[in-house]
Amino acid sequence: MGVLGRFWNFVMGLFWQGQRSLEQANPEAVYVMAIQKMKENYSQLQAAVGRLAAERNRLRALLAKKKEQLGDVEKDVEAALSEAQAGNADANEMGEDLVGEKEALEGEIATLTKELSVSEQTVAEYLGKMRRIEAQTKQMESKKDAMIAKLQSAKARQAFGDMVSGMTTSAEEAAVADIDKYIEGVAAQADIAEEMSGATREEKRAKLREVSRERGTKSKFQAMLEARQAAAAGPGAAAKAAVAAGKGGIG
Question: Is 249 strand, coil or helix?
Fold first, then answer.
């Protein structure tokens, strides 16, 4: 294939691709064009069937007329036979003409019958085509409504899907994750501070117990000293000193 041939094919390919894109962008117009074409075909077929039906009716009328003529000729033949049998010489000659006319009419009737049969068959065939085109047109109109509704529904679902897919929360989720880490870190620091604070309290309690023991030791010694002094002073004072010695200290 030459350069011009390839270029022509390329141009035609672009044309058909552009036409397909236009059709996909306007699907309802495609259905309307198809329905309009069907209606045009129906109108053309209807006109053709009308002409065929007229010819069929003409053949029917002509055939009926020829049959009627044949009936009259047959009656004349019977009359000529009766006259010839009666000795009428003119009846013989007339009878020969009538028989020729009868045979001619029978031939015409046979031909017309055959032509009428073909005409009626053709008319019936094209009437059937008309009914099919009419049914296809109605189906196409119904299909157009259903398919356009289906397309609109599909586009609506697609638009909703695109909208939902565009609702990304990755940045927000990352920010929440960072906040979670921050909060966990602060909580961990608080736990450590509480643990350290708890250790300090234990140390304070230990120091307090130690001070208390030291104070208790001093109190017992002081009580013993007071008891000795009381013993030296008298029995009443000794009893009070003994009670005080028993209550001395925290532990």
Answer: coil
Q: How many domains does the chain have?
A: 2
Angle, in degrees to the nearest 10, between helices 27-85 and 3-25: 100
133 belongs to a structural domain = yes
- What is the reported pLDDT for 214? 66
6: number of Cβ within 10 Å: 10
Return the SS3 of 108: helix
Q: Which residues of 45-63 are buried (b: 16+ CB within 10 A; e: fewer)?
A: beeebeebbeebeebeeeb
Domain boundary among 97, 116, 151: 151
Q: Does residue 242 belong to any structural domain of this protein?
A: yes
Question: Helix crossing, 27-85 with 89-166: angle to 10°?
Answer: 170
The pTM assigned to this predicted structure is: 0.47
CB 227, CB 241: distance < 8 Å: yes
How far apart are alpha carbons 166 and 8 in whole angstroms? 43
- Average pLDDT on 85-99 reads 84
Instruction: Give the structural domain span for 67.
Output: 26-151
Number of helical (H) and strand (E) elements in the chain, helices listed first: 5, 0
The answer as to whether 167 is a domain residue is no
d(CA 27, CA 42): 23
| 247/251 Cα distance (integer angstroms) | 10
Of 29, 48, 58, nearest to 144 by C-alpha is 29
Residue 2 lies in a domain: no
Q: How large is the C-alpha radius of gyration of the chain?
A: 64
Supply the mean pLDDT for the chain.
Answer: 76
Q: State yes or no: pLDDT of 7 exceeds 70.
A: no
